[in-house]
Amino acid sequence: MDVRLRIVALIAILILFLVVLDLVRRRRLLERYALLWLGSALALMALASWGGLLEEVSTAIGVATPSNALFVAAFGFVLVLLLHFSIAVSRLSDQSKILAQRLAILEERERELEAELARRGEQATAPEPIRDPVRR
Amino acid sequence: MTMHRRADNLAVVPAYNEAATIAAVVASIHEARDDFDVLVVDDGSTDATSELAERAGARVLRMPFNLGIGGAVQAGFTFALEHRYERMVQVDADGQHLPDEIQTLSDTMDARPEVDMVCGSRFITDTGYPAPISRRTGIHIFAFLLSRFVGQRVSDPTSGFRLYNRRGIALFARDYPHDYPEVEAILMVHHHSLRMVEVPVRMRERGGGVSSITSGKSAYYMVKVLLALFVGLARRRPVPEPGEDAPVMAGHGI
To answer: What CATH number does residue B213 fall under?
Structure first.
């Protein structure tokens, strides 16, 4: 693969790597989601910089041009990341559904309690105004 | 404004499917300490953990789904903060931590009021704790790194048996790490200029249930915590200071 292409690929991957690390540092990205990005970036970095590795991989999987093998690898990682996010989104929607249900049940219980308190309050306070003047 | 607070201190017991041991753990804490309320945080168990804990006299927070240990324990910190408990101790639900040893932790805090977190350690002196060699290796790597990062000897960074004062409670109620929190929490304590100290305690082997750290997950655990530690070094202010952005912000993309 052309040296210029190698350098461009390496710089791009390095920028990705640093951006991901900085997002974790600024707490915009959880470690558990960052690991897959960092792992992908490291693997691509190895492919792009390790002389001969990319050529070997491309002949092994039957890709004619080594640079295409790099694209295939990158595409593979993107697919894995997308699947990972689909799983994460599914879990989040499951969790928010459960939260909404619990909240609705809690609100209903709270309204019931308020109604019950109001009923008891009326019973407790209603007779008082009648008795009080008599006693005084 | 304290509601139903019986004692001045709180024992938080995070529990996920610990029906085999939870009742005995709650009972043993009550028996050993009358100055501690017991709060069981049921992290989405599918067994009778909640019912058994309630019957044993604990207060129970039921998580609507499994949050993971960090989220469950942070619910305990928030509870302790809202009810203004003086101190909070974390006790594992599997019977590994001995309630008698809470005395060791609180004696240390009494003697040194400047300390915000007292950690029970299995490894300061040989307390005869039979940890498998693979887990020991991981613990020792974290111990080695943390000791250098915080400039103080840390011997048992994964121990969850810890006593916190109000400053410790307030810090971790605002921000507590997610997946495997104990190691990173030590770094946070250091970053926020809080003080921690370790004391040797005896621990038992697990009474039942399965550890949250299985052998298959331990490699992932190592890598994740190492990433958190090294990135944590570059975080100057892990928690927003008053007037800064909120920890979770809407619409702050890349």
So the answer is: 3.90.550.10
